[in-house]
Amino acid sequence: MAARRRGTTAAALLLLSAMVTGCGGAASAGTDGPGGDPAAAAGAGTAATATVLPVAERLPAPDTAGRDLAGRDLALRSYRGKVVVLNVWGTWCAPCRAEAPELEALRGALEPRGVRLVGVDVRDRSTGPAVAFEKAYGLHYPSIHDPDGKLLLAYPPALLNPQAIPSTLVVDRQGRIAAAVSGPVTRAQLEPLVTRVAEEGS
Fold first, then answer.
1. CATH top class, domain 2-198
2. pLDDT tens digits, 60-99
């Protein structure tokens, strides 16, 4: 019972701390690189929300797969046995630019503990702006190129809304969705949650 209360409290804290503005579906796709106009890129903002799922209620994550920004095959299933932070982003999205350094810091801190970050770059028609984005923010994790956002349609809309960018999922070692955050996050907000998932069964 105490463990359940702690989990509920952590979920509530994450929810409160994540109440920020993200990019809505109205942002224009593929027009801005890392130096684009943040005001234009923001589009219609929506308040971010977070959902933390008890182990018994977790659903298998879809087998998201495609080509990364370098043209190599990349599939979520290849990370089974690792905790995966799956971040959906686009170069046209101002909050995505704000959270990119935070996600890279999270990667550096948690990769030694079996955590991997994977991005899904959506609505960028070509990979050029996305590659420039990675270089500008020093990102060292791969991203699948999904110009039409089709990969997102395989996810339950309640956990991953294709119109809410950025969005982040935490996938546990068994390939199940453990948590979902709609809106930009910081390392401080996300790290305790990811750490808890990484420590499950240890």
1. alpha beta
2. 999 999 999 999 999 999 999 999 999 999 999 999 999 9
pLDDT digits (tens, 9 = 90+) for 77-87: 999 999 999 99
Which 3-state string (H, E, C) describes the chain?
Answer: CHHHHHHHHHHHHHHHHCCCECECCCCCCCCCCCCCCHHHHHCCCCECEEEECCHHHCCECCCCEEEECCCCEEEHHHHCCCEEEEEEECCCCHHHHHHHHHHHHHHHHHHHHCEEEEEEEECCCCCHHHHHHHHHCCCCCCEEEECCCHHHHHCCCCCCCCCCECEEEEECCCCEEEEEEECCCCHHHHHHHHHHHHCCCC
Look-up: residue for tokens 């903002």?
45
Please tell me the distance from the alpha carbon of residue 79 to that of residue 84, in angstroms, as a whole number. 7
pLDDT above 70 coverage of the chain, percent: 76
| Domains in the chain: boundaries | 2-198
Predicted TM-score (pTM) of this structure: 0.80
Angle, in degrees to the nearest 10, between helices 2-17 and 187-198: 150
Residue type, 192: P
In 10 A of CB 101, how many CB atoms? Answer: 14
